[in-house]
Amino acid sequence: MEPKPNWKFWKKKKSPKPTTSSLSTPAGTSAASVPAPVAASATPVETNSTISPIVNNQTVQNSVVATDDSPPSNLPEQHACLPSRPCVSKTEAWLSRATLFLTFTKSVAEGVGLTPLKAACEGVVSLLEAVQAVQNNRSAWNELVLAIKTHLDTFEQQLGQVGISDILEEVESSLKGPIEDYLNDVTDLLANILAESGITEADIKDNKLTISVLVQRIGTTKLEAGVINDYRLRLQTAQSKIMQSLILYIASSVGNSKDDAVLARLQFTKPSNISRPRECVKGTRTDILAKCKEWSLNEDTPNILWIKGHPGGGKSAIASSLVNELEIKKKRLGSSFFFQRQNAIAMTTPALWRTVAYDLARHPTIRKSLAAEMKKEEIDLETPNIDVLFQQLIQGPLTKIEDIPIEQSPIVVIDALDECGGLDSQRSKDRKDLIRTLDSWSKLPRNFKLIVTSREESDIARLFSRTQPHTIELSTGEKTDMQSKEDIQSFLRIEFQTITERYPESLSADWPGSKIIEDLAVKAGGLFIWASTAIKLIEAGEPEEQLKQALSGKGTGDMNSLYVQVIKMSFPSPSIQVVQNLLSVVGTIIVAKEPMRLSAVAQLLSIAKPVAEHICTGLQSVMESKEELRFRHQSFVDFLLDPGSDASNLSISLGKAHEALASRCLKIMRNELRFNIGTIESSYTLNDEIPGLESWLEKCISPHLLYASRFWTTHLEEASPSPEILDDVRYFLRNQFLFWLEVISLHQLVNGGVVILLVLLRWLKRHCLEDLIALASDMPRFITHFNTLILQSVPHIYLSALPFVPKQSWIAKEYGPRYPNTLKIEEGGDQKWLATLNILSGHNGDVLSVGWSADGQRIVSGSYDKTVRIWDVTTGQQQGSLLDGHNDWVESVAFSPDGRRIVSGSIDQTVRIWDVETGKQHGPSLEGHNGWVQSVAFSPDGRRIVSGSYDKTVRIWDVETGKQHGPSLEGHDGFVLSVAFSPDGRWIATGSSDKTVRIWDVETGRQHGRSLKGHNVWVRSVAISSDGRWIVSGSFDRTVRIWDVETGKQHGLSFEGHDGWIQSVAFSPDGRRIVSGSFDKTVRIWDVETGKQHGLSLAGHDDRVVSVAISPDGRWIVSSSNDKTVRIWDVETGKQHGPSLDGHNVWVQSVAFSPDGRRVVSGSDDRTVRIWDVETGKQYGLSFEGHNGWIQSVAFSPDGRRIVSGSFDRTVRIWDVETGKQHGLSFEGHDDWIQSVAFSPDGQRILSGSNDKTVRIWDVETGKQHGLSLEGQDGFVFSMTFSPDGRWIATGSSDKTVRIWDAETGRQHGRSLKGHDGWVRSVAISLDGRQIVSGSNDNTVRIWDVETGQQLGSSLEGHNDQVWSVAFSPNGRQIASASDDKTVRVWDLRHAPLLEMSFKKASSYLNASRMTDGWIRGPNSERLFWVAPHLQMGLFPPFQTLFIGQYIQTRLDMSKFVHGAAWTQVRGDWAEASA
Q1: Which one, out of 371, 399, 566, 863, has a CA that is 20 to 30 A from the CA of 1073?
Q2: Whole-prediction pTM value?
């Protein structure tokens, strides 16, 4: 018997992957039919066609079957056939499909996935249904067929699932294994069947197998039932494993799809002009590519490969080829990034690592890790701290896949490292950042591969001398190897072939011949850029003539000579004008901060587009100009910038190029900036509410204007102040600042606008342009002050920002008169710019400590949230990620003198040192203290750190070693709360809870002199003056004291003024001033010589000020507070805003007018009663003290000589206005807090309302209750009052109602007055008895008609918190209200809404119901104008006449205010005059 064919070869042999073809399915065939049995002896069905090899599971190409119209009699009845086509039986159709699978199985092992698996099942079913014709073991065959059909259905269902295609593209091993097992079992089964049928490999390979032969032979198949059942069980087991793995994998895939949106934030939006460099010409650089591939698969080599070489050596082409050669993103995890000098703004180091991270996230483990971190917002993609970004995006995720095989391990290609940073190259922060991260990569495991191409510049050489990468040097010049020459010749042949095809009649096919090509290759000297440029030069003109020019150059690899030829050929006899235009265009392309199109360059330079096009066309051999203009290679830029080059007459000076571009930017802005450049129709519409804003802006703001608006000061900074430039700068400052802000606002560049103006200011100061400095200094302040508003709305730059500019500012003087039809400040507002330069928000807990860097550019802060943060002073943005490591509150922070490190002390008893650049902890924590570390400081040389602790000791630490220097300094009898080094580093000053200040000798560790005593409680902060002569101390006794270091005596008197504990003190750099921060929420500046406060207090914090520091130049103060913010203050302009009232310290609960209207009485939670002068707003006399609880209500007697007060101490007290003493005994009787009191009109009785829900009447003289209590309220009685005639009593209650009672009968009069949405805290009746006023927890004041019970007009709004007290003036024309917002407001009823008065165009404001997010809104919620947060509380509505409170009082004149569609009339007549 012949041996069975070895059908197993189909499982092992590698075959080409299937290709797609088409099939014409004969009519009448059915894939669902089961053929009838075919006898083994049946007459074969002959066919003129063999069965072609099939390469797709559903198609047969060019195959004709069953041409015989007379099938065997034992075949089933045929289906109807189309008259024009051969008839095909169902059996033949099924067997045809089965045959597809016979050939298809050759590539089973190559195509592991659900699609080939489905094909396998279809083919096997077709085949096995024919095998069922065999009578032997038919039952077993049926079960096997049924099982595989079931599997087929399951696989088809899975293929239909949403998202399954993602899984099929990249099947993981967990799914791949079970699929391979199933296919192996199928192949085994087929091999057995075919062997039993006597079908040989040759039958299939040689295409000799006809359908009839196939049917006949398969019909003879005989397999034992046990064997068949074994296959069935094996296939069922394999199918079960597939489904289990698939379920898990699909679940993972669904999770992945949810991560897509999160990970999409990683994607770097590549500028449209950036494309990957051309790859090496096929067949060239094979030796280098092979070396790279060999290195990539070797785990024993360094993980960085450095391909270095001279400019033009083909490094970028090699890098581009490696992406394909190493199959990055196809078979191997990886990424690529190609730096370009002209795209330096976009192609940054953060963009590189974000791109790499996004590409690496194709690996499920990395994907899951990155997505989880980003969902928790633990990765700050905008951080300037590149080391942290690298650790989070690259280093951390890669460590999770360290065991990945080298064949699959990540490989990253970074091309043109030397072009990172643009023209600034080695000086740029971006380049320095990248160098550091590459150093970090070198420390990763060796299977994580990185390829870097670059020139051998000094900083790059230093990096790689440390990291020792695997290096490939591209030989050029005299060292050019034979392989490079041959590669360049291959390149030239291909390019010349393209040229000859353009000139078929004049150039022979082998032009210019092997000898010339060889000569050109020699001249190239290994520089592919030489060869490429030479080809471009030849293509640019008549080939023969251009070739001569290319060959005429001197030397080998001489790019300069070639570039000279390019310029000479393009501009043979240029005129002076052509040379000037050439220099302008080329200089602009070189120094431009972002690539521009030809049209934009022409408009920017104000030259005709054809002229610019002519220049760019002439330079086409070295320039790409289809989209953005850019030079093909950096070597041409180097050639132009080299003053010693052969083209010295065309040499570009960077300084002059910047100056020319600065001048053009200023000219463009002068010509194109204008009022309402975006043609915004209504001031009610915010920028982001404008339909189609982005496309609309493209029409309104040209690309060259946008470029000029963004980069004019960048170029100006490199320019000298020529008369022309000075005139344009002056014109911009005095005429166009607000127009420029419109562009900045519409393009969301407001934060960058501050930086632009600070660069301008720096330029003006450098050139001593004093007449412009003052105005220019106002402009960054304007943006900072109105940042939120400018971001939101262009119209409100004029309607809301300009009107609120400080009156004394240069902007107000220069621009205010030009826009008359807007708000006018009649009274109040800011007189000077806010002292707060910036508010730094981000900490999640109280900010306990702040410090300046030596250069004044950064601030460090420490907080209750256990973190240290670094802030950029200019932008107010956090710099880098937070420094996280302490286990408890961070009590103290400080910068090292060189700004490179930060020290922090915490109540976790440790001191830690941090690296500012990396954000990582430097060395181990400094441990030794046994109590909370309260204060830390660097020595002047930065080599030592001093720390003070609750363990009563002071310790000195060595920064480098982290070890304690010498023994601890001991002597204090209490906690050491503050430490400071002297400027010479010899002494340390300390302050302690033992109430003393001590001085210590750093070398000996002994106390210097005696303790400095004088404070009455803890000394919380100490500092030493810059000359080392004085120590300042701040104490919980609320005083600041200065001490003489030599004598140990106090210098002058104590500085007094703070109303709370002093938490922090600091000297100014010149030692002339001291700054202090206190629990009274203020920062104060003191004059050292006089001991007097310098200016007013800096108020703005909403909680205790716990730390202050002065900038190195003495211009700024930084403070931190328990309000979780850090604030920066201007030392010169700093002042307390609004009148400084030494008044109530907490909530004011009640106010009332005196009968003559000249005074107001107030009661507060500070348990005092105070009287105020209405005209001056100042307190009259001393406070009345005596209550033991919060005072809820106060009232004057009718004769004005007495005051009654009710308190939470459940008593009513009467006070003598003149003496301030209590009159008689307290009235007692209520069972709960007293909420309200009032005198009767004759002054003989007093009303009191209480939380016991009753109102009681008291006899003033006897102090006894008069009659029964008034009962019936459903809530606490907060307020009640007599009518002027004594007949009625009005009450306000927590049941949100106002009620009127008959004073004689004690019964309620009429129905309850309803309308308030909160408790009614206070009520009052007008002098004529016709109106009632009420104040409520809903923050409103309402007026009611006594007779009708109806509310009169709309509510009076302005308070930002609940209104606790209201009162009528004696003439009934005014109402006073007091609120939890700590203000008293007086309202003029003649202008109130209830009288239906209007102020011309201000009527919308009069009827406005709400202030939301700083916007005053009209009746339809339209935005009328915006008010800065610090002015909101003190803003007078038009009908408010007086304001008492610690806020800036601001009254507006709205008679000319235009808004809505009329907003463009804001310029009035000035617009016509200027037109």
Answers
A1: 863
A2: 0.52
Rounded distance, CA 1099 to CA 1097, Å? 6
The whole-angstrom separation of Cα 1325 and Cα 1330 is: 7
Of the CA atoms within 13 Å of residue 898, those in its CB half-sphere come to 8
Pairing status of strand 824-828 against strand 1450-1453: antiparallel
Indicate the pLDDT class of residue 89, thresholds 50, 70 and 90.
very low
Is residue 499 pLDDT above 80, yes or no?
yes
Q: Which SS3 state, helix, strand or coil, does residue 505 take? A: coil
The predicted-structure confidence for 819-870, as pLDDT tens digits, reads as follows: 999 999 888 888 877 656 566 667 787 777 777 787 777 888 888 888 898 8
Token pair for 721: 């102040």
Please provide the DSSP assignment of 307-333 as one string: EE-STTSSHHHHHHHHHHHTTBTTTB-
> What digits encode the pLDDT tens for the residues 1128-1174?
666 565 432 223 334 566 666 666 667 776 777 777 888 888 887 76
CA angle 1011, 1013, 1018 (to 5 degrees): 105
Please give the average per-residue pLDDT across 1063-1072, as a whole number: 78
User: Tokens 């800065």 sit at which residue?
Assistant: 1428
pLDDT at 1149: 66
Q: Is the peptide bond preceding residue 595 cis, with omega within 30 degrees of 0? A: no
Torsion of CA 507, 513, 518, 523, to 10 degrees: -30
Lowest mean pLDDT, pick from 160-169, 736-745, 1240-1249: 160-169
| CB-based contact 944:956 (threshold 8 Å) | yes
Q: How far apart are CA 1218 and CA 1207, in angstroms?
A: 21
The conformational region for residue 616 under phi > 0 = left, psi -120 to 50 = alpha, else beta, is: alpha
The set of residues, in sequence order, having a beta carbon less than 8 Å from that of 1082 and lying 6+ positions away, is 1058, 1097, 1098, 1099, 1101, 1105, 1136
pLDDT in tens, 1093-1129: 666 666 666 776 655 556 666 666 666 566 656 566 6
User: Token pair 């404008």 is at which residue?
Assistant: 690
Give the pLDDT band of residue 1375 (cuts 50, 70, 90). confident
- Point out which residues pair with 1086 in neighbouring strands: 1074, 1093
Amino acid type, 1077 = G
Q: Which helix (H) or strand (E) holds 1161?
A: strand 1159-1164
Q: CA 558 → CA 318, 562, 632, 1198, 1266, distances in Å?
A: 21, 7, 17, 105, 114
Percent of the chain, pLDDT > 90? 16
User: Residue 247, Cα to own-chain centre: how many angstroms?
Assistant: 37
Q: Is the pLDDT of residue 1002 over 70?
A: yes
At a CB cut-off of 8 Å and minimum separation 6, what does 542 contact? none
The mean of the pLDDT values for the chain is: 76
Angle between helix axes 703-716 and 598-605 (nearest 10 degrees) is 60
Q: How far apart (Å, rounded) are the C-alpha atoms in residues 438 and 441?
A: 5
**Pick from 1355, 1366, 1387, 1285: which is nearest to 1324 by CA?**
1366
DSSP letter (8 states) at residue 1396: T
pLDDT at 683: 94
Angle at 1439 between CA 1437 and CA 1442, to 5 degrees: 80
Nearest Cα residue to 1367 out of 1076, 1057, 1155, 1190: 1155
- The pLDDT assigned to 46 comes to 33
Q: What's the CA gap between 1331 and 1325, in Å, rounded?
A: 6
Angstrom distance (rounded) from CA 607 to CA 1066? 58
pLDDT of residue 662: 93
The encoded tokens of residue 371 equal 């997505």
Query: Is residue 174 scored above 80 in pLDDT?
Result: no
Using a 10 angstrom Cβ sphere, with 0-12 exposed, 13-18 middle and 19 or more buried, the burial of residue 218 is: buried
